[in-house]
Amino acid sequence: MNKDQIKGRTEEAKGKIKEATGKILDNDELELKGNLQKNAGKVRAGFGDLKEDIKNSN
């Protein structure tokens, strides 16, 4: 695992928690921030996965 995969998955998990908390507290702003953080984490983790695939294919 590379640092982009780790940081991406960490951000994704934090975003999921924030999003769920926003739903529970009926806080639309917190829910939206969590959703954005989760998706940004997915993108970063995907980038890390791609880097890892390229490294492993050589």
C-alpha Rg, in Å? 14 Å
The global form is: rod-shaped
Could you give the count of β-strands? 0
As a percent range, the share of helical residues equals over 70%
What is the element layout, followed by pairings?
Blueprint: H1 3-24, H2 28-57
Helix pairs in contact: 1-2
Q: How is this structure best described in words?
A:
The chain has 58 residues and is mainly alpha-helical. It has two helices and no strands. Helix 1 runs antiparallel to helix 2. It starts with a helix and ends with a helix.
Which features does this protein show?
mainly alpha; 58 residues; 90% helix; rod-shaped
Brief summary of the model shown:
The chain is built from two helices and no strands. It has 58 residues and is mainly alpha-helical. The chain has one domain.
